[in-house]
Specification:
The protein is mostly helical. The chain contains 3 helices and 2 strands, in the order αβαβα.
Length: about 100
């Protein structure tokens, strides 16, 4: 790939990553509003979060600042932890739904 094409593709990917990070920020804002500004830590993992880190970290940091929670740590976890947490989360969700469905 020529240098000009590479630069163009990198620019497009960067712009789309920025837009996606803004969309994620908006969704996190909705959740933060519902649960209140009481989060002790924010974990970011899975779903391509590593590739979005440059933009996503800044968006989350700005959001925390807007909610006066600028001291809340933002922790990125690598893929090994992501797989475990995704599996654990799905198991917990399934178990909770099962318990709700089978209440006596």
């Amino acid at each position: 790939m020529s240098r000009n094409k590479y630069t163009h593709v990198a620019s497009v990917v960067d712009e789309e990553s920025y837009r996606f990070a803004q969309q994620l920020r908006n969704e996190i804002s909705k959740i933060y509003t519902r649960v209140g500004a009481t989060n002790e830590v924010i974990f970011v993992y899975g779903g391509g979060s590593g590739g979005l880190e440059q933009h996503l970290y800044n968006e989350i940091a700005n959001l925390l600042s807007d909610f006066n929670s600028g001291g809340t740590p933002i922790i990125y976890l690598n893929a090994a932890y992501s797989r475990f947490l995704n599996e654990h989360g799905l198991y917990s969700l399934a178990k909770g739904l099962y318990n709700i469905a089978h209440k006596d």
